[in-house]
């Protein structure tokens, strides 16, 4: 299923119309299109789903896409989250998805300076949200406050940003946590996100394809070479999962993309294990690639 934004029109029935962010889409309402498939049976199922949705709307007042504030209709942001949330939109680096301040900031080939200097191992990376105040409202409790259910709020944003990548993906694989961190957090947020996406996009998820062999220190402030060295040998493909990866187009899922070094290290081991291609989809990305 692909998500789409509605056209930007003054008459769009959202709470907030016409506001634009630098490097982002102006939006007022966020909705998913009907599922593909035009048979009468499909239409019946869709009709029943819509009726059920309408009945639930009567019972449960619609909530903001990000927080639990009530809004007038499903698919809207509350005032605070609308101001704080930035969707990533073109122009972005065609390889790593880094947002450009303007179309002129991209080189003639459409890639950023980092990708030109050292092309990543992954084919394409995209993220849904800038990692700003709005994204932190979702991602910090998702990571640190035992709130796995937030994956359901993030998934529609990823479906929209990663529609093309999900279309070609044959298998979703989450970035793994080291087992000590997994024990402390109780769940791997990237795996929970991958499962939520896999269900909605009807793609298989291999939650344990990768493992993190050792914990890694934060990468912030390190140079590209130092990040690569810090991650050398940190990830591996589980041998019993290698057969499932062979020849497949894999979509690696993470919560936050920073420098892309972690995604790159994971892509390397997936490709070495036989994956045909690796793309990356994250809920958010840090705008400054030197951030870590
Ligand atoms: Zn809100
Ligand atoms: Zn790039």
Write up what this structure looks like.
With 292 residues, the protein is an alpha/beta fold. It has two domains: 1-85, no CATH class; 103-291, Rossmann fold. It has helices at 40-59, 79-84, 113-117, 133-144, 151-161, 163-168, 179-185, 189-201, 224-231, 242-245, 261-272, and strands spanning 125-130, 171-174, 210-212, 235-237, 249-257, 277-285. The strands form two sheets. It has a four-stranded parallel beta sheet with strand order 1-6-5-2. The protein has a two-stranded antiparallel ribbon with strand order 3-4. The longest helix is centred in the N-terminal third of the chain and has 20 residues, at 40-59. The protein is globular. 39% of the residues are buried. Mean pLDDT is 81; it is low at 1-46. The protein binds zinc ion (ZN) (2 copies).
As a percent range, the share of strand residues is: 5-15%
CATH architecture of the largest domain: 3-Layer(aba) Sandwich
Q: Quickly count the helices.
A: 11
CATH-defined topology of the largest domain? Rossmann fold
Q: Uncertain spans, ≥5 residues at pLDDT below 50? A: 1-46
Name the overall outline: globular
Helical content (DSSP H or I, runs of 4+): 25-40%
Task: Describe the main β-sheet briefly.
Answer: 4 strands, parallel
Query: For the CA atoms, what is the radius of gyration?
Result: 19 Å
Q: What is the mean pLDDT?
A: 81
* Helix-strand sequence: HHHEHHHEHHEHEHEHE
